[in-house]
Amino acid sequence: MAGQHVETGTTFDAHHPVTGEVAARVHQADRGTVDAAVAAARSALTGPWGRLTSTERIDLVVGVAEGVTRRFEEFVEAEVSDTGQAYTMAERVNIPRGAANFTAFAHTLREHAEQAFHLETPDGSARSTSRPGAPAASSASSRRGTPRCSS
Question: 0.70 cut: is pTM over it?
Fold first, then answer.
């Protein structure tokens, strides 16, 4: 949170969905921790992230895609441990799709920089505003909650 690891003092075991073995010990957030995380996220908008140019943000998104590809096996292991999916599904679909999504988002940002859309979600519903010809944001999402764009 705000670039720092946070320990809450209350933990629970996360179990591997196939074997039932403990895969991780997870810190449980209370209301105060969640409020602090939300405040940190909001302050990021006025911090370095909020001051990035479109090109710098695009470069970061491309970097995420490259990082997923570079650490492919780690992501496969995490996906299988988290979801219980078969390795072949994680290796052939889920992880490549994740990297491809970030690449597609970067290309969309690059190609439509002057027609950017803004998602407003204070009540949890995705709404979009855009200029004519801009990609529209959809509330439809993948399993991981990634917004999808369509033109």
Answer: no
